[in-house]
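Dear support,

Our group has been running a series of protein-ligand predictions, and this particular one with histidyl-adenosine monophosphate is the one our PI (initials K.S.) wants archived with full inputs and outputs. We had some confusion internally about which version of the output was final, so please treat the block below as the authoritative record. The input we submitted was:
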Amino acid sequence: MSKNQIRSIKGTQDILPDQSYKWQDLENKIHATMMLYNYGEIRTPAFEKTELFDRGVGTETDIVSKEMYSWIDQGGENLTLKPELTAPVSRSYIQHNLGSQQPLTKLYYIDALFRRERPQKGRYRQFHQFGVEAFGSEHPEIDSEIIAIAVTLFNQIGIKDLSLKLNSIGSETCREDYKKELKQFLKPHFDKLSKASQTRFEKNPLRILDSKSPNEIDIIKNAPQISEFWTKDDKDHFDELCSYLDAMNISYSIDPKLVRGLDYYSRTTFEIISSSLGAQDAICGGGRYDGLVEIIGGKPTPGIGFAAGMERILMIINDANTKENIKIFIVGLGDSVRPVVAKLTNDLRHNNLSSECDMLRRSMRAQMREANKLGAKYAIIIGENELQQNQVQLKDLVSGKQKTIDMSSIVSHMTSLSF
Ligand code: HAM
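Confirmed final output from the archive:
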């Protein structure tokens, strides 16, 4: 590698043509699924005011406290590349008063996000999410629809080893009571907790439940469970959600420690994990965020959604689809032939036939090799002789058969063939 060469930034990836067709395929399936569920696509800016994430996601979360790409711009504004989409989509929902047009507003997005995490397999600093957000209903039927979207889509695209983990972290009063009790329980173990958990002990003890350290998992296993602190409404909400999932034959396991790492959640939380993924095994995570719209300046509005990591989906997808090949390669030989080749290639493309021709003035052999490499089904060969006689040679590259066709009818002939 030359010293002058500029490389991409750690944790970012180029998506090259041998991969991008898979992205397009997945994106098309997502758009089609969202049509079925009646969700509209929303696209928000790449950067927002930092305050949106401070207030929306919470200053004590890992995302806001450690991972944001933030800067003061030339006008003195504190800006941040979006690390997640729920807060920006909620901001947009409020700003455009979407709730006044539809009491239940159902939105989805496919977008690039930025978090300064330690890169590893399945964890990047620029990554992509497909997500859905529904505003306006507090009822568990929308929770079940949101979960059904994720499960249906993942099943449809061939992800087999899914498991859905479900929990409710209750309403605010429940969480406040629970936090007190949890702190009581953790106090005697305080010295054995990691530095990060000791900080969380004061600010957000629920996050300690999320710990991956074996020592802390051992301490936590006897901790009181949040379900013991649910209000009656919390319990009814959760039970109803479970009954809808049962009715839809969606299997799940209840994980009382699933609290998720963003501050806006209340009641339903869920994650879908895949054992094919390794350490970063969450394909998608989501939950209810009934307080968020109000926190960032809107009218109290319930909301629920999820986001799924596109890179992670693509890592495990059963890749049945292959890239579509070029259909026709036009082989041209000789200076006088070139304008004819240019016109014919263009005409075929106008007729919706993917076509390619040589732009490197290569030999006949090299052009035929290129046609095969591209997987073309037909080669149309035009040399000086063919040009003089107003003809072309059409070669079927699968059967090897070749025939002569009049130049004037080659486009209509090609459009009549089945590929
Ligand atoms: P999250 O759990 O931070 O939630 O991210 C959701 C998904 O994005 C993860 O399950 C994972 O698949 C993917 N993901 C997260 N970080 C990375 C990374 N550094 N590299 C690759 N993939 C990653 C949220 O973002 C919430 N906004 C989800 C939500 C929507 N909740 C309600 N509505």
